[in-house]
Design goal:
217 residues, alpha+beta, 16% strand
Length: 217
């Protein structure tokens, strides 16, 4: 008598339960909530375009200087200079004097400066369209002196609401605005840098001046 061969019945593939489906959906939603904001942020540091702006500012100052006896507009006695505004809170005048070299005032706004807005032209330009200070004692022949930088610099004494006076012994620093207790500097030789508070102190020492006068917009 021949033995009967028993064949195993094929097992049905088990479907996902309602609980498992809900877990998968919840996981997808959680991952999306974490990744989407990261993907939405612009690539690169917001300080990079700010440094680029200051580089253009430095170039504009040097171009102006080359046509005006090697002096920057805030110290020059030429007719087209901004020396007459050295004691004025209208800091924008020093940059307005270089409208031809700068071409557009849009480069005078730091991307992180939410309290300032870009001006479309220099005719309607004011402190409200300016993110950068100007050093009133900048000198092209003194390359390590400060020329410009982020307006959130602090320390020293503030006179008339706009003139900040620093010394090599000043505990200068940066506020939490703009770049979170750090900032960017432009020097008289046209170079720019990202500066921590420690580097800011060092730069003040290298500037060869007992006091540094910064006009803050």
């Amino acid at each position: 008598m021949m033995a009967t061969t028993m064949r195993a019945k094929p097992q049905r593939a088990r479907g996902l339960t309602v609980v498992e489906v809900l877990l998968v959906i919840a996981t997808v939603v959680l991952v999306a909530a974490v990744l989407l904001p990261m993907l939405a942020k612009p690539k690169g540091s917001p300080r990079i375009p700010c440094v680029s702006n200051l580089k253009q500012v430095g170039l504009a100052f040097r171009l102006w200087s080359n046509d005006n006896n090697d002096q920057f507009p805030q110290v020059s006695t030429n007719v087209a200079s901004s020396l007459a505004w050295a004691n004025s809170p209208q800091v924008f005048r020093h940059f307005q004097a270089m409208s031809n070299e700068l071409v557009t005032p849009k480069v005078l706004i730091c991307p992180s400066d939410e309290k300032r807005t870009k001006a479309s032209d220099f005719v309607n330009f004011s402190n409200a369209n300016l993110s950068y200070f100007i050093a009133l004692d900048a000198d092209e022949s003194k390359p390590q002196r400060l020329l410009s930088g982020d307006r959130n610099i602090t320390g020293g004494t503030l006179s008339n609401g706009f003139l900040r006076i620093l010394t090599s012994n000043t505990l200068a620093g940066w506020t939490t605005n703009l770049h979170n207790k750090s900032g960017n500097l432009g020097l008289s030789d046209g170079s720019t840098m990202q500066a921590s508070e420690k580097y800011l102190h060092r730069q003040l020492e290298l500037g060869d001046l007992p006091t540094v006068r910064l006009a803050i917009p």
